Amino acid sequence: MKFANPTNDIAFKKIFGDENRTRVLISFLNSILDFRGEREIESVTIANPYQVPKIKELKNTILDIKAINQNGEEFIVEMQVEKDKEFAKRSLYYTSKSYVEQIDKAEKYRDLQKVYFIGILNFAILDTSNYISRHLILDKETHKQEIADFEFTFIELQKFTLQLHECDTIAKKWIYFIQNASSFDMIPKEYEDIEAFQDAFESAKQYNWSKKEMELYDWHFKQTWKQLSIMETAREDGLKQGLKEGLEKGIEKGIEKGIEKGIEKGIEKGIEQGLEQGKKEEQLKIAINLLDILDNETIALKTGLTAQEVEELR
Hints:
Elements: H1 9-16, H2 22-32, E1 44-46, H3 55-58, E2 64-69, E3 74-80, H4 87-100, E4 115-121, E5 132-135, E6 150-156, H5 170-180, H6 195-204, H7 211-290, H8 296-303, H9 307-313
Parallel strand pairs: 3-4, 4-6
Antiparallel strand pairs: 1-2, 2-3, 5-6
């Protein structure tokens, strides 16, 4: 039995965006957002249910899931595999856009409903070791959530390292499912008694998929790998260019430094030689003045010249 990989956008939308199997999305949202009691989601309407898309439409489209619960609250769920440093800002944009589009007249502010954004990321963007984090608007002093219409949850799959037997909550089981469903040969016993998971695995069974869905699934993976390859090539090219420029700068700096040192050394040597030459000339002058009154040995002793040099002066 072959299950699709839920991190693939096509598979993710087919599994969690099926309007005929909404208990999959309901279970996922309730567990991830920790909804219980009065807050528990009982029903959802999927605003953009899964339909087999066309490749042409996919090229510039982000496949997310939008749903509305029984209280009118909105939920946006997005799977993101390729690293996107602007993802946090994008989540703010989508959430605020969804919020504003709820009404068409300013006097209907009271009709605005809360919007939840859930981002499932195959990379890390936050400075925390937690694999799941929730972000609210809180009062700085009291930490109360009095402005409660926006809420963001990020699931960073790279930080989730639990084994299936360690997944003791529905939320952990869902994250493990998203990470590992494609590696299963059959439905694990840990999922057998939960109806929502039965539906999820049923949607993920690829032998139930149409030829067109399989083509889209493979195409999307190829696009992802292509994009990752482009990014890796760009990174390697950047490193090579950086090394080349660094080497060129180093050589240039080395030459400049060498010239500076050479000039400095030349000046020092010139001064030293000049002083020595001046000293020699002074010694010779003194020796010449003593030639008529002293012998060679005494003149040499007084001037620092050699006896041979004094003899040559005579």
